Amino acid sequence: MISQGNKSGLRNPWVWGMLALIVIVLSVNATFVWFATKGTRSALVERDYKTGDRQSNESLLSELRMQHQLAWQTEIKKPESVVVGTPATYQIAVQDRDGKPVSGNMEVVSYRASDASQDFSTPFREVAPGRYQGYINFPLKGYWELHIRVQRGEERFGVDTEKFMVSAS
Fold first, then answer.
1. 108 falls in which pLDDT band (50, 70, 90)?
2. Are 92 and 124 in contact (CB under 8 A)?
3. Are the CB atoms for 109 and 124 separated by under 8 Å?
4. Mean pLDDT over residues 114-119, rounded?
5. What letters, b where the CB count within 10 A reaches 16 and e where it falls short, cover 73-84?
6. 59 by DSSP, 3-state: which?
7. If you average pLDDT over every residue of the chain, what do you get?
8. C-alpha–C-alpha distance, residues 164 and 124, integer Å
9. For residues 135 and 120, is the Cβ–Cβ distance under 8 A?
10. Where are the alpha helices (DSSP H) in 38-157?
11. Which residues fall within 8 angstroms of residue 36, CB to CB, at 6 or more apart?
12. What is d(CA 135, CA 133) in angstroms, rounded to the nearest whole number?
């Protein structure tokens, strides 16, 4: 019979095993909390930020300042609906801060957040001064974004679209 008056339960190896397991779990969790609050970043994460495809904060801020100074405006004409496997026509107009058309090279990167291996880029053709046209054929349904990059000489400008749905049919 098991009761509080029976002290033989403390001699049971299963009770000691469960207590030891609880102590080990609490110790491991305390170690993780200590590492998390230690205040230093992991060297592995820091190296990934520096060597990965990401830009450093300074280069990103420099690019944003340059784009802000350019103050180019874009107007994007999107198709009503986008269907997988059917080329969708996009027309993009670019003007500088004075309203003059911007002639240069345009590349549009189709970005799929859920699967980076499916990202692809499409060069757009300038059909009139400051007006570009391209056909994008999306290989998969789901949410996509477009990253539009325009370069005129040394000047670079980029703008991103909101997410949109590519339907199966």
1. very high
2. yes
3. no
4. 83
5. ebeeeeeeebee
6. helix
7. 86
8. 20
9. no
10. 43-51, 57-70
11. none
12. 7
